[in-house]
Amino acid sequence: GGKSIAAAKPATSPLIHPVIEPLAYLLGKWTGEGEGDFPTINSFRYGEELTFTHSGKPAIAYTQKTWKLNSGEPMHAESGYWRPKPDGSIEVVISHINGLVEVQKGTYDANDKVINLKSSLVGNASKVNAITRDFKMINGNLTYVVQMSTNHTPNIQQHLKAVLSKL
Ligand code: HEM
């Protein structure tokens, strides 16, 4: 047998940190369908699951995965941390399965349940220059639009939109 290493377990039901309380409506698992498009590609539809969890720290952990609707074959995936501040600003860091990384900065409105993000950094990308992500709760569903600009398409254009419901 291996040498035993004493390690306490993480808390199973941590208290929600007051800083993330305004975004507590996100916590949990969301699933739904989205639609992808861009001037340079054929449009497509996808299935998606988002999870938002917390540990008691002032950040929300985020994971996303997507798949082809007909076959279930995996498509894009990403994960990161959402870091709201008490002044209504928010910073989100995301790493993508294809190696792209982004830092998003923006604002949240806890009453309207709206979050607007704009990239302040896109790194390790072959052609993406900027990304915006806009989230809005509509009739209890989490909806978003992702737009991007690339070397070939310098004006920001919609790439993704989706509607998700809480599991
Ligand atoms: C194409 C970026 C999310 C599926 C592209 C292209 C870029 C890109 C730069 C090529 C466009 C061109 O050549 O002009 C991104 C970024 C994302 C994202 C930055 C997240 C912020 C997703 C997601 C999916 C997806 C979530 C699937 C659910 C596709 C597909 C294409 C594409 C199918 C066209 C075929 C291909 O190039 O593979 N994306 N994408 N993308 N993206 Fe995304």
Care to describe what's here?
- It is built from no helices and ten strands.
- The chain has strands at 28-36, 44-53, 60-68, 74-84, 89-96, 101-109, 114-123, 128-138, 141-150, 157-166.
- A ten-stranded antiparallel barrel has the order 1-2-3-4-5-6-7-8-9-10.
- The mean pLDDT is 97.
- The structure holds protoporphyrin IX containing FE (HEM).
- Protoporphyrin IX containing FE binds at residues 36, 38, 40-41, 44, 46, 66, 75-76, 100, 127-128, 131, 146, 148, 150, 152-153, 159-160.
- Protoporphyrin IX containing FE binds next to strand 2, strand 4, strand 8, strand 9 and strand 10.
The biggest sheet amounts to: 10 strands, antiparallel, barrel
Please count the beta strands (DSSP E, at least 2 residues each).
10
Distance from N terminus to C terminus (CA atoms, Å) equals 41 Å
The succession of helices and strands, N to C, reads: EEEEEEEEEE
Strand content: over 45%
Structural class: mainly beta
- Low-pLDDT ranges: none
> In order across it, which strands form the biggest sheet?
1-2-3-4-5-6-7-8-9-10
- Global morphology: globular
Residue share in helix: under 10%
Instruction: Report the mean per-residue pLDDT as an integer.
Output: 97
